[in-house]
Please model this.
Amino acid sequence: MFKFKFTERNDTRYDSIDWKKLGFGKYFADYMFVANYKNGEWNKGEIVPYAPFMIEPSMMTLHYGQTIFEGLKAYYNINGGANLFRPNMNAKRLNNSAKKLVIPEFPEETFIEACKEVVYYNRNFIPQKRGESLYIRPVMFGSSNMLGVHPADEYMLIIFASPVANYYEEGLNPVKIKVADRYVRAVRGGLGGAKTAANYAASLYAGMEAKKDGYSQVLWLDGVHLSNIDEVGAMNIMFVIDGKLITPTLETGTILAGVTRDSVIHLAKSMGIEVQERIIAIDEILMGLEKGKLTEAFGTGTAATISPVGKLSFKGVEYILNNNQIGEISQKMYDTLLGIQYGEIEDKFNWTIKIDF
Ligand code: COI
Model:
């Protein structure tokens, strides 16, 4: 299993963690993977202690945002070791984002091996409580020091880890979402389908306004007409209308190809639920709510897992979904997905990679 040079640290970050209040992304585990791209090639990469590193004020990414990232999780396996969930999907998506941002691609097999070793060396940091996991955050960015606007010629890939609980304070309780009717996150032909900082930066102002109004997230509409549903930013969105699972299509190129989105689509089909990936007008959602045909909505994401939506607000009108309770399909998806991830349910899709220790 060991492919990379390993430098051991002589202390640990373990004791500084409040394991009872993990929250999301507040604590960082002992080791990270680092690879550098120089003179047209990636070096071998190595596992080193998680630590700050030096950058120059002229580092291009600080100015022009040539950076992409990923998010995947390792779960405590009830039968021993850990399960890494679908890292091959993240390896592919990282390279799709890389193409859009003119960043050199990273070999997929090496990426997966690096994630496995990051989990192995941080194995003490994998929480054992249900709903908690070790979140792995790969980030890849231009590291050259230059001021002209063009792609960098040097890059870094860092893969570090963070023991996490729920992304939202609500946990599996329904979240309140505000549909953005003035701001946009992405447009066709833009970067919406890439996992890159720009999309998250574009979401902050509207997110802050939504928070002030008491909503946890923003649901984005398409960037031209503000009439079709895109995604929530930290997660994709799914609706249950007339018993069918309906979610925005990836074909517009404006939403992220979520790994949890893909997993839920596969699970739903295997359960005999009809799935439609297509353009969804906000008017169809409002009509579905008014007529009682829309029975559930939930977000899907690696960080957010399955996050039921209890309240949706659009242009000042608030709609309540399923009596602000988690719906039957949302619950079923949550239970099945987590069951597979923790090794409790047979992994018929071969999604998990077991790491023994
Ligand atoms: C994830 O679900 O992994 C994400 O990257 C969403 C968010 C934390 C940015």
User: Anything to note?
Assistant: The chain has two domains: 5-165, 175-338.
